Amino acid sequence: MPIRMVEDENQQNSENENNDEQYTPPQEQDVNTGGGGFDSRWLLGIPLLFKLFKGRMIWLIILAIVGYFLYSKFSGLGASDSSSDIGRGCEMKQEEYDKAEVYEPLDVQKNGIPASASLSQYCPPAKNQGQQGSCVGWGSSYAARTILEATATGQDPRNVAFSPAYLYNQIGLGGCQGAYINKAMEVLTRQGDLPYNQFPYDQNSCDQMPNQQQVASAGQYKMKGYNRLTLSGEDYRNDINSVKQHLAAGAPVVVGMFVTESFTQGMMGRKVWHPTSYDYDGPNLGGHCMCVIGYDDNLEGGAFQLANSWGPEWGENGKGWVKYKDFLHFTQEAYGTYPMGVVKANDKKLSAVLGLVNVDTKQYISLTNAGGNLFRTTSAIKKGQKFKMEIKNNTECYVYVFGQETDNSSYVLFPYTKKHSPYCGITGSRLFPKDHSMQADNIGNKDYMAVVVSKTPLDYNKLNGIVSSSGQSNYQMKFNDAFKNTALQNVRFGVSNGNAAFECDVAEKKAVVAIVEINKQ
User: Fold this and answer.
1) Each residue's pLDDT tens digit, 255-284
2) Which CATH number fits domain 83-340: 3.30.470.20, 3.30.70.980, 3.30.300.30, 3.90.70.10?
3) Signed CA dihedral, 75, 80, 85, 87: sign only
4) Counting runs of H as helices and runs of E as strands, what totals does the chain give?
5) Three-state secondary-structure class, residue 329
6) Residues near 335 by Cβ (< 8 Å), separated by ≥ 6?
7) Residue 252 preceded by cis peptide, ω within 30
8) pLDDT tens digits, residue range 422-466?
């Protein structure tokens, strides 16, 4: 392979200090077994205490132990039975989460993330799901989909709120007591959604299904798409920076989180959740779906704001803050939605800047335009040199990167695997590959790469096969031939500060191809 992939010594993930802690999900407790998680093992020590101590002192000791246990367990909570009256219902399995494509984050060194961001003004008023396990419908449809609509249209969220029942009734598991978030994301993207007033919520039943007319009407309210916000395709820890990048771009994040008793009644009227050691080490009440609507780096060391579905009494008007560390520990799944607001103004434009970055010096490897869509390094790089490709997009697009094999066939560099998403709706600079580098090998004096930027998703494996089987004489001609019917015309190619650049208006044809020739010695 002319361009080899080598693992970075200091992977980019290390830039995210909040992700250092390995996530270990707490054990779920049975909330129907008389208090949910009471640990009676300490009672075994009472006979021993009677032997060691005599008289009234023993009763003081026992009372102290009981008091400490109750304090550490409930931490301001009322009777534990009340926790079972609060609806939850988020089912979480890694194999289901794995079905969602992984978001490719912006490079944190090139893109400054604001210290805070809030979508609270676009969030509909807090409502209570009751005892029905429909939280996935509330977090995904009522909260996230409403926020997307309000940001896109500028309308009052109270007037454009979406129905939790339309979504949940179609994906709910048996007994109206649970659903998978990924299923909700699929329905919102492929089928759409209905406004709340067209499909009201009934906490006592989830049996009503939408009719054909309602399903057809929901098509006008499709969500653009979604990604999972994990560190990589195989590392399922959620990425703090990716969550922030979505929120800063006006895109809410839907999460599945393990909740404990202090998170239920203990958060009534409170702003920030302060879990105890018992919350961390003890059993939990199961999974609950909510919508992340903001963050603040300066609030208690950094925290996310979540919109809940337990009524306005919970938190502050139905919203509560969870510190970053606690968020990472208790959150099992995080789905970033595609932005639907600001990007609309750029739907008819397509532009990008492409550069090669020397891993050792962090400087750009200068490129020049060699004619048309071909760019070439102005001087040869050393064989064995490590580099990355930087792609900066100013408009919503899909990005694909290919390389030429020694036998002149083509291979895919990005998406890295089928788990990774080519979607770059959160605009800015990205470095490819994220936690690896490309390295010029010792074979030949030239390497070739192709970058395809499109307004719509492409079947990149099929495209790669077409290029590989092409009878054209060189890599540039192979790609130009493959895109002869779909490539945009009148593309303005140029060079900006030693980087390749292009800009064009989008018509029916929605893809641009740029070829990079790397000279090496």
Assistant:
1) 999 999 999 999 999 999 999 999 999 999
2) 3.90.70.10
3) positive
4) 13, 25
5) helix
6) 100, 181, 182, 185, 226, 227, 228, 229, 253, 254, 255
7) no
8) 999 999 999 998 888 999 988 899 999 999 999 999 999 999 999
Please name which of 449, 333, 351 lies closest in space to residue 396, comparing C-alpha atoms. 351
Q: What is the CA radius of gyration of the chain?
A: 27
Round the average pLDDT of the chain to a whole number and report it: 87
Determine which helix (DSSP H) or strand (DSSP E) holds 431, and give its type and residue range.
strand 428-432
Quickly tell me which residue has 């659903």 as its tokens: 179
- Residue 56 has what pLDDT? 54
| Mean pLDDT in residue range 166-170 | 98
* Torsion, CA 278, CA 283, CA 284, CA 287, rounded to 10: 140
In the numeric block, which tokens belong to residue 223? Answer: 């969500």
Count of other CB atoms within 10 angstroms of residue 305: 26
| Helix 181-190 vs helix 164-171: crossing angle, to nearest 10 | 120
Q: Name residue, tokens 């390094």.
A: 377
From start to end of 76-204, where are the E strands? 90-91, 116-118, 179-180
Six-digit token pair at 456? 């719509």
Only one residue has tokens 């998403």, namely: 421
Cα–Cα distance, 81 to 35 (Å, whole number): 6
* H-helix segments, 81-175: 94-97, 135-137, 146-153, 164-171
Extract the tokens encoding 133.
């396990």
Residue 50, SS3 per DSSP: helix
Show me where the domains of the chain are located: 40-74, 83-340, 343-519
249 CB-contact burial (10 Å; exposed 0-12 / middle 13-18 / buried 19+): buried
Among the listed residues 236, 156, 163, 241, the one whose alpha carbon sits nearest the alpha carbon of residue 199: 163
User: What kind and span of H or E run contains 61?
Assistant: helix 57-74
Do strands 303-307 and 3-7 pair parallel, antiparallel, or not at all (unpaired)? unpaired
**What's at 410, amino acid-wise?**
S
Determine the distance from the C-alpha atom of residue 400 to the mean position of all C-alpha atoms in its chain, rounded to a whole number.
Answer: 20
